[in-house]
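Readers of this paper often ask what the protein records in our data store actually look like. Such a record has a labelled line for the sequence and another for the backbone structure tokens. The tokens are whole numbers drawn from a learned vocabulary of local backbone shapes. We quote a single record here, exactly as it is kept in our systems:
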Amino acid sequence: MGTGNDHPTGGLELGYARVSTTKQSLTRQLDALAAVGIGDERIYVDKKTGATIDRDGLNQLLAYARSGDTIVVHTLDRIGRNLREVLNLVHELAEKEIGVRSLADPLPINTADEGMGRIAFLLLALFAEMERTFTAERAAHARAVAQAAGRQIGRPVAHPEDKIEYARLLKAQGDSLGVIAAKTGIPKTSLHRYLARPGGPA
């Protein structure tokens, strides 16, 4: 993968791939970067969970990139966890004359392109922000409707309180979890949680 070797003259295409957990695979992103001719020595990766944009692979890439280079990603969300991070980073890179190109977004993104590629990026950013706003508004409306109708907001209790109390009574009488599960219909996994908290359901 990417190294900190001397930067050759001329603009380079530098790949970046990221997954948010160690259980996810980088294969699809790496295959896409390889398909456009970016070698392993020019690809930087991050494979861990983190709440900020401070990631080792990305930091190495940003330190290596020079004016005239283009950072290539599978989709634009790989370089940031939210729209604001993406926009901030793209703006900072543009000031250094470093472009960003995505391979699989619905619109062809290339911020180094002064034409349609740049316009596509701005449109994508606009659509993403609109969707975020609409999602928040829909969630707020759903909560307001539910509250007006007197419905409970949030995760419902999985089992009725009377069954949980019955399970506690059976436990106090010395019944095994298997017997309690059979009599109450509550799975053993839930019984462990309920019976460990005598004050109420988990």
Q: What stands out?
A: Helices lie at 27-35, 56-64, 83-95, 116-148, 161-172, 177-184, 188-195. The beta strands are 13-19, 43-47, 70-73, 99-102. The chain has three domains: 13-113, 115-154, 161-196.
